[in-house]
Amino acid sequence: MAPLPGAELVQTPLQLYRYLLRCCRQLPTKGIQEHYKHAVRQGFRVHSDEDSPERILQIIKRAIEDADWIMNKVRDPLIRLQSFSAPLTLEGRI
Fold first, then answer.
1. For residues 17 and 28, what is the distance between their CA atoms, to the nearest angstrom?
2. How buried is 66 (Cβ within 10 angstroms: 0-12 exposed, 13-18 middle, 19+ buried)?
3. Helix (H) or strand (E) holding 22
4. Which residue ranges does the record assign to the Complex 1 LYR protein domain (predicted)?
């Protein structure tokens, strides 16, 4: 499962950049969002001189997989917390 709809449409570095920044906006806190935005920018700076189409597609595929992993990593603890946040009742305990 992709972190956001449209992952299958990403074919260029610019599309990937915009897609990853949209993923960052889905993260729960500003601190986490800024951390991953910085990582996205750094990744693009490091690979800015890449000119092999095969290598670019490989990087795009891996970046989408990594974004999926990060989104699931962040989402799973939140789901677990939400399942335990239901109020406890003491019915029958008087």
1. 20
2. middle
3. helix 13-25
4. 12-68
